[in-house]
Amino acid sequence: MNTKDYVIKVIDKIKTRDNNEPEFIQAVEEVYTSLIPVLEQRPDLIKDNILERLSEPERMIIFKVPWVDDAGNIQVNRGFRVQFNSAIGPYKGGLRFAENVNLSIVKFLAFEQIFKNSLTGLPIGGGKGGSDFSPLNKSDAEIKRFTQSFMLELSRHIGGDIDSPAGDIGVGAREIGYLFGHYKRIKNSYDAAGVTGKSVAISGSILRPEATGYGIAYFAQEVLHEFNEDIKGKTIAVSGFGNVCWGFCKKAAALGAKVVTLSSEHGYIYDPEGVNTEAKLNYLLKMRADINGDLRDYAKEFNCEFFSNEKPWVRKVDLIVPCATQNELNLDDAKAIVNNKVKFVIEGSNMPITKEAMEYLKTHDVIVGPGKAANAGGVSVSALEMSQNVIRYSWTSEEVDQKLAGIMKNIYLSCKQAAQEYGYGYDLVAGANISGFLRVAEAMKIQGDY
What sign does the dihedral 93-181-398-90 (CA atoms) show? Predict the structure, then answer.
């Protein structure tokens, strides 16, 4: 069997076995097809059937989460934790609380996390979790009761040397605080590394809230430097208005760039002056803290236009940075980006570009910075948080920021070098897949046939 046939066989088996998990299948297919040149040079990885072993989670946990609402009624949600691969370290990845969370989404996120964490160079494996519970329109007391019930089961499966969850969509500092507080009570131990993304007051790392967005900005800067350009002076269209978007806006402004859009499921705002003042950045924090925050309020507050039921990708800008959710940028959006002669798209969220849109962007010479590389800043600082927790120490914001910038530069270089080495030129998407894969594959080989 030749290399391509082997890859197709593995993908077809996954499609048959997991045919009700489209997001997971999409993620696997995107990674595995890019690995063909690697496997041609490494037949030992085919002999050891690394791809099939890597595509099956080490553990999938699905559990009931009963909780009592403010009216005294018992509600039930479903909780998930996919502990995908621990070849290079304990499972590490966020928790997502949103109505659309299901096993396919959690599996795809956990699968992507394997390579993202590998790219950081830090000793962390891949995992992800969450629930179909949405904090929207819930009281603080309801959120607290839900998170405590969720942790009652999750606590059986996590710990600093086992699995360290963090936040994601719908899980911010408040939810992490409730989760960690209940985890500590259950374990009767201050296992601070067991949960990350904590507030500084409870052993969290300085700059952790900003880290994902900061990392995206640092990665974008490296890409632009490759073409003798700088992020300073660039106009940027961004989606979302949550934590990732806020962190990116903050660092982009510090680097002299101008973010001119924010978006939600209802539409987007266009702020030609840029989301770059302290008042605007603080307003983003206010909206993020309000679970019912509405971008139309931002438009009113800062006298800019809100475009209902539209996406920001129609704007003529220098850089596109999707920071919301998976598959948010489709083929029509890609065509608009190409028509506007935008040269750079940096993925801020996980797999935000559909397969068809990605192919279109690449064939039209748009440079894409892959999410598994560009948004690895968050998990990088989460790993730094774990290190600080273990040694009972806290680094300054300058130290953390310097370490993060160095990690993101190394991630960029590893993606670039891997792409070149295996014949992909300057395809950073393929480079990220290859570089992340090789480290995990070697670790799996060393540890035998698990």
Answer: negative
Partners of 59 in beta bridges: 83
Rounded CA-CA distance 231/334 in Å is 22
Residue with tokens 């700088």: 230
Q: What are the residue numbers of the active site?
A: 128
Helix/strand/coil for 57: coil
DSSP state of 171: B
Judged against a pLDDT cut of 70, whether residue 292 lies above it is answered with no
**Residue 404: both structure tokens together:** 């993060």
pLDDT tens for residues 322-365? 999 999 999 999 999 999 999 999 999 999 999 999 999 999 99
pLDDT score of 1 more than 90? no
- Give me the residue label for tokens 């309801």: 142
**Phi and psi at residue 226, in whole multiples of 5°?**
-60, -30
Please give the Cα distance from 368 to 360 (Å, whole number).
11
pTM above 0.90, yes or no: yes
Give the number of residues written for the chain. 450
pLDDT at 159 over 70: yes
Strand, helix or coil for residue 131:
strand
- Helix, strand, coil shares of the chain as percentages rounded to 5? 50, 15, 35
Mean pLDDT within 51-67: 98
Tokens of 343: 């040269």
Structure tokens at 427: 């395809």
**Strands (E) located in 115-218:** 125-131, 163-166
Q: Using the 8-state DSSP alphabet, how is residue 91 labeled? A: E
* Mean pLDDT along residues 114-141: 96
Residues 6+ apart with CB under 8 A from 369: 219, 220, 223, 344, 345, 346, 347, 428
Quick one: pLDDT at residue 291? 58
Tokens coding 175: 């939810």
